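Quick review question:
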């Protein structure tokens, strides 16, 4: 097998893929000198809200602040418990912490998303919110989580950072519950050229509060009506995102096509647990932000792939949130999450990959396991 190089993510490709359209969009903004809260942002918010079927979209500075703003707008109080999966980026728990809440970490299921049974067991008299992470471009069992929330008088705020365009039973990630948060980090399926984020909501009051809060608490007349922060999506980013959004369905299709190759090539390899296949079941439409597997001899496999030119990642320093000692969180046992973190691995998944690249990765994995 002849070695080739397959990077985990090709950042220059993000620009070069749609270079002419991006250049024109940026040039238009720069020549007009319109940088903050201008037409491109308004147009992007309208187009992306229509895409997911939300009543409102609000562009913010990053995905972390979008969750923070949503929790504050929803009325979180000091000590309110927020249930979330420990298999998530630290930003999810940090948003809860800095909003004054208490993160309550629960286990994930076989598809690496929040486990509804674990959520149900974690509800106490102090629980106020459930914050599911729609991880790797897949949506959790939202009807089950909505039932738990309804039965216990709770609200849902989604961390849908990795799931723009993903669906569960025909409904898009970020449109369940009071509000949904999206990250527009450059490596996301729809990424800016820096930090950026979105908030979705169908609730008029939440929209008003979150829109004011992202701009120092100012309303459309420029009057400060509440405490807020500076968390605006820059107009230059919005122009780039607006141009890229035209190609977003094609980008998702390409990721799903690559996932099919991974599935077809590796589904019979007993040493690996794959994510659900693109056409597995009718309830979900996955966008494959990441391709996270579980693998026997994970660390040795990683080294073997690296030797053969294939770059991989273990998310979040290979550590679930409840195991970061510096956070002072309770010492709890989450068996599936802890076992999974001994085996999990992200394979390359992005639109810069060719079919041959994915076949080469699969050849290399098969070679490792003999």
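Suggested answer, residue by residue:
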């Amino acid at each position: 097998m002849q070695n080739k190089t397959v990077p985990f993510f090709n950042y220059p490709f993000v620009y070069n893929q749609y270079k002419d359209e991006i250049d024109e969009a940026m040039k238009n903004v720069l020549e007009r000198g319109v940088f903050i809260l201008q037409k491109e942002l308004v147009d992007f918010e309208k187009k992306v809200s229509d895409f997911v079927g939300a009543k409102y979209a609000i562009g913010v500075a990053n995905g972390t602040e979008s969750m923070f703003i949503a929790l504050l707008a929803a009325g979180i109080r000091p000590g309110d418990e927020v249930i979330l999966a420990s298999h998530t980026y630290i930003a999810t728990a940090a948003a809860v912490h800095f909003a004054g809440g208490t993160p309550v970490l629960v286990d994930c299921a076989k598809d690496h998303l929040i486990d509804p049974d674990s959520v149900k067991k974690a509800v106490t008299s102090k629980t106020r919110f459930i914050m599911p992470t729609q991880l790797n471009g897949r949506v959790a069992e939202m009807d089950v989580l909505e039932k738990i929330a309804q039965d216990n008088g709770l609200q849902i705020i989604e961390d849908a950072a990795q799931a723009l365009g993903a669906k569960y039973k025909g409904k898009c990630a970020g449109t369940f519950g009071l509000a949904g948060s999206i990250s527009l980090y450059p490596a996301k399926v729809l990424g800016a050229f820096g930090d950026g984020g979105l908030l979705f909501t169908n609730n008029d009051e939440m929209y008003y509060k979150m829109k004011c809060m992202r701009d120092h608490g100012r309303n459309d007349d420029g009057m400060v009506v509440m405490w807020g922060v500076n968390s605006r999506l820059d107009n230059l980013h919005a122009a780039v995102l607006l141009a890229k959004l035209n190609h977003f369905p094609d980008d998702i299709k390409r990721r799903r096509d690559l996932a099919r190759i991974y599935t077809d090539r590796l589904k019979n390899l007993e040493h690996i647990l794959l994510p659900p296949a693109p056409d597995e079941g009718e309830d979900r439409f996955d966008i494959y932000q990441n391709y996270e597997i579980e693998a026997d001899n994970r660390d040795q496999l990683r080294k073997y792939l690296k030797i053969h030119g294939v770059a991989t990642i273990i998310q979040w320093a290979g550590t679930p949130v409840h195991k970061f000692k510096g956070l002072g969180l309770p010492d709890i046992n989450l068996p599936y999450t802890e076992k999974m973190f001994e085996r999990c691995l992200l394979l390359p998944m992005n639109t810069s990959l060719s079919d041959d690249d994915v076949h080469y990765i699969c050849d290399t994995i098969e070679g490792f396991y003999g």
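Why it works: The longest helix spans residues 248-266. The chain has 13 helices and 13 strands.
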